[in-house]
Each structure stands twice: as structure tokens, then as C-alpha cells.
Design a protein that fits this description.
This protein is mostly beta strands and 286 residues long. The protein is built from 2 helices and 16 strands. The chain is 9% helix and 31% strand. Strand 2 and strand 3 (101-109) form a beta hairpin. The longest helix has 17 residues, at 2-18. The N and C termini lie far apart (140 Å).
């Protein structure tokens, strides 16, 4: 009996050496990832997911590498349990959980632009996100907030006034715009946005356009014509509908921090005006 046990012990030792000393871990055994990355997925996550436990600061592997950031979005009531874009900027109500907490959806933002949805978590009052970090505000969220700003279209001023101009005559185009500012709550953080008009595309109404980086100016006596935005219509006796599209750029700051540029622009199309192109009639005087 002893001899048989000894033989089995020797066989087990040989197998352990051949397999590199690895024995299958039991479910109750503690897991020690050591110095290599450990896949700490929860049920339902796809392979290769990052451990969501570090919140907005990204995931740190055993080797010290930082994973991508994780964005938090409140879950709206009545939204079927899914994350909605409106929740970031306020919705009818968010799903409560725990002791007055808010149910948050989570999205991993990978460097290649792809995303991955993680299971929802409950963020209690006083917690800014898992691991004590603030929910991540991504450039895409900031641009979306910029798109939601109530930016006006540009009122087109044409001269000569009165809805008529002459063929082969310098018709003056201009508009006016002031910077626009707004402050919103985005994922529980204060986001300041300041937008300015930076580009104008002038549609003459005859199929041609011109683009400028300034808004032009109304006619002023004594100012050279080169100081205005002008266009000469080539065909008389027709009615055209000129307009101007305004492109806005913006900068932002979070929680009173430094100003930074928003990645992307927003273009607002202007309403067309009606302009009749006529031919001047010579008059004899004397």
C-alpha cells in the first residue's frame, strides 16, 4: 500500500514538472495575477474587456500599463434600462439605486475609437465614480454639448438695400455675430462653453459661393470697395436667393479649469433672402 502511494506521488510530481508546476485552480482559491495582466471580467463582458474597477482613470494592469478611460452616463427612467444621450444633459429622471445613488451606464473608450459597454453600476452620493475618480468627460461628449448650443443663424445684409441690385455691380454682403456662452451640467460636472463664428460661406444664389473668415461690414462712404465682401452678378432680369452659412468654433472648460478648444465645428445654415438683379437704365439730363 505504501509502495503504491509512493508511486502515485512520484507520478504526480513528474506531471507537475512537465506541466510547468501549474495545477488547476479551484473556484475558492485566491487569484494572484502576479506580474502579468489578469482578465478580471465579470459575467457577460466580452473577452479582452478591461477591469472596470478603476473608473475614469483607466485600468492598470499588473505590468503597470494604463487601460483606456471609462465614461459614466446616468440611466434615464423609462429608457428601457439603456443609456440615452439625453441623460448626460438631464432627463425626466434618472434611475435611483442604493442609498440615494444613481444608476450609471459605463462605456470603455479605446484608443482606436471603438467602444465597449460595461455593466451598469450604482454610484452613491459623494462618489464621483468607481475608485473615487470623476466620471470621464470625453471629447465626443463635449462636442455633442457644443452641437446642442442654441446657436443662431446669421442675418444677411445686402447693399444696395431694397431687394434690388444692378448687373455687373459690386453687391455688398455682410452679417453680424457675437460670441455665445453657456454653462451646463454634464455627468454631474460643470461645463462652460464659449462659441464664436469663425467662417462664413456666402451663397450668391446663382450657384456660386465664396468663403471668408470674417463677417464683412456694411457700406461706409469713403471706404475702398476692397474692404467689403462683394459679388458681381452677370445676368440681369432674374431673382436670386442669396444666403450665408456660419461655422462656429468653441472652447470649453470643466469645473472652472483651463480653457481648451472643442474638437470640431458646427455650421448653421442661414435663411435665404430675395434679390432681384436688374439692368441700369441710362437717363439723359441737361
Amino acid at each position: 500500500m505504501v509502495s503504491a502511494l509512493a508511486r502515485w506521488g512520484l507520478l504526480l510530481a513528474v506531471l507537475t514538472v512537465v506541466l510547468g508546476g501549474q495545477m488547476p485552480a479551484r473556484a475558492e482559491d485566491p487569484v494572484n495575477p502576479g506580474g502579468s495582466w489578469f482578465d478580471a471580467r465579470v459575467p457577460g463582458e466580452s473577452p479582452g474587456s478591461y477591469d472596470p474597477g478603476t473608473g475614469g482613470e483607466g485600468v492598470e494592469s499588473g505590468g503597470g500599463a494604463q487601460g483606456p478611460p471609462i465614461g459614466y452616463t446616468p440611466i434615464c427612467e423609462g429608457g428601457g434600462g439603456g443609456t440615452t444621450e439625453e441623460a448626460r444633459y438631464g432627463c425626466g429622471g434618472t434611475v435611483e439605486c442604493g442609498n440615494g445613488g444613481t444608476m450609471m451606464g459605463r462605456t470603455v473608450y479605446y484608443p482606436d475609437g471603438s467602444t465597449e459597454t460595461l455593466p451598469n453600476v450604482c454610484v452613491e452620493p459623494g462618489e464621483e465614480g468607481e475608485g473615487g475618480t470623476a466620471p470621464v468627460i470625453t471629447p465626443g461628449m463635449i462636442y455633442e454639448a457644443f452641437e446642442r448650443m442654441p446657436l443662431p443663424d446669421s442675418d444677411l445684409t445686402l447693399q444696395p438695400p431694397g431687394g434690388e441690385t444692378l448687373v455687373n455691380f459690386d453687391t455688398i454682403f455682410s452679417t453680424t455675430n457675437e460670441p455665445k456662452t453657456t454653462t451646463i451640467a454634464l455627468l454631474g460636472q460643470s461645463l462652460d462653453l464659449e462659441a464664436s463664428a469663425t467662417s462664413y460661406e456666402w451663397h450668391h444664389g446663382d450657384g456660386s459661393t465664396q468663403t471668408t473668415d470674417w463677417e464683412g461690414q456694411p457700406y461706409q462712404e469713403g471706404t475702398p470697395i476692397s474692404e467689403f465682401i462683394t459679388y458681381r452678378y452677370q445676368d440681369a432680369f432674374e431673382t436670386v436667393e442669396p444666403s450665408v452659412d456660419t461655422t462656429w468654433s468653441a472652447r470649453y472648460r470643466l469645473n472652472g479649469g483651463p480653457w481648451q478648444p472643442v474638437a470640431g465645428t458646427v455650421t448653421i445654415e442661414g435663411d435665404p433672402a430675395s434679390l432681384r438683379v436688374v439692368e441700369g437704365q441710362p437717363n439723359l439730363v441737361g
